[in-house]
Amino acid sequence: MINDNDNINLCELSASEVISLLKRREVSPLELVEASADRIQLTDGHINAIPTRCFDRARQHAKKIMENSNRHQTDNPAWLGGLPISVKDLVAVKGVRTTWGSPIFSSHIPSKSDILVEILESNGAIVIGKSNTPEFGAGANTFNEVFGKTYNPWNISKTCGGSSGGAAVSLATGQVWMATGSDLGGSLRIPASYCSVTGLRPTPGRVPHGPADVAFDTLTVDGPMGRNALDTAIFLDAMCGTNVNDPISLPKPASPFADAVYHKHQYLPTRVAYSPDLGIFPVDKKVAEICKNAARCLEKVGVKVEDGSPSFTNAVETFQVLRAALFAGTKINLLEHHREALKPELIWNIEKGLSLTSQEIGKAQVARSKLYQRMSQFFQDYDLLICPTVITPPFDVNIRYIEELDGYKFENYVDWLGMTFVLSLTGCPAISTPAGFTDDGLPVGLQIIAPPQAESKLLATSAVLEEIIDLPHKTPIFPRQDTND
Hints:
By secondary structure, this protein is of the alpha/beta class. It is built from 15 helices and 15 strands.
């Protein structure tokens, strides 16, 4: 098991606790880098969460922060003070191997960081390594031909989800205190659910990124992942704000997101709707039961919880069209020049996009707009929508994706992610928060959706649920062979 030493104790603290120590100078950035590095070396052989490490770069960055610590005010909510984080391997970090999980880019070293990384480093984050992801982030099981599989720490025979799988695992095992993720069809929320951590898909534009090939795209977003709502809120404060290089970036809110967690009961919803399946796909009965019980917990603090949901008619087909069109536009060169190096699911998705007609794409855009209008109408009656994050608990890591559930056969590798991707279409922020565990100890996440730019409501509600549910199993954990260990 784990030796009881100072480094491990630091790793067991929450991000908010460690940042407080940093601001009071009771611990140094360099000490945290060493603690994180030790924890990664201790655990990663079991889980493969951070295959690319940049410890020396992190040490150098820590020393620079320590040398210039007087420049930053301790009351700045965006200042992380020298906190080590993991960055998803879809996001460029200057001087650090960045592969996108593809053998095509297995030796790629960027000469410039993504906007997101620049913002975070300017706010006192230290990149300790790159978290594993499926090839180009396609799919919700984290494996690729460069680094192999990433394993779920609650049971290393299971998948951790994806595509921010390495990010979620690095949090759950205490390797880092915060992790960046990205989300097109659920890539932040699904691994958060599968690893019992918190993942927030923010409103498009809330977190600047790029410069992107499709700068005005509102389907793909970057966002924060943490072990709890407060850590996630603090991380969002450190990464949000207007940036000239991202044309849809939003200004920082008047109040920090962390304040919504500190004063969570002031942000509580009055009336919410719960749906077990959004009317689209089957959901594992145990998952539905755990999520319903978690949602009903809000009644204990006076929130009215009702059954309900807007209509997601045609939303599955709409997302599949728009996703395929995005893949065709951004990855056609890969198909033309490196087809043999692409996994079959990617080839299918790009070719699907290339086969689309302008009429099909136009109709999908119209359908998306109509869905948003239905969602807007729904939020005139309800403050939040709540549902399961994923239709099934974590499954065998050797299964590429779910093909069938309760007799329902999914058409492709994306369809089974419908509980998250139909909500991506709406542009609404969504969070996955831990809801409970199955009888065999596998995590289940609850998904909460708010109107656009209402991330504070999500974070506050997540924090309230954390208090009420008070799960018996807490992160960080040491990777487990099975749930009976």
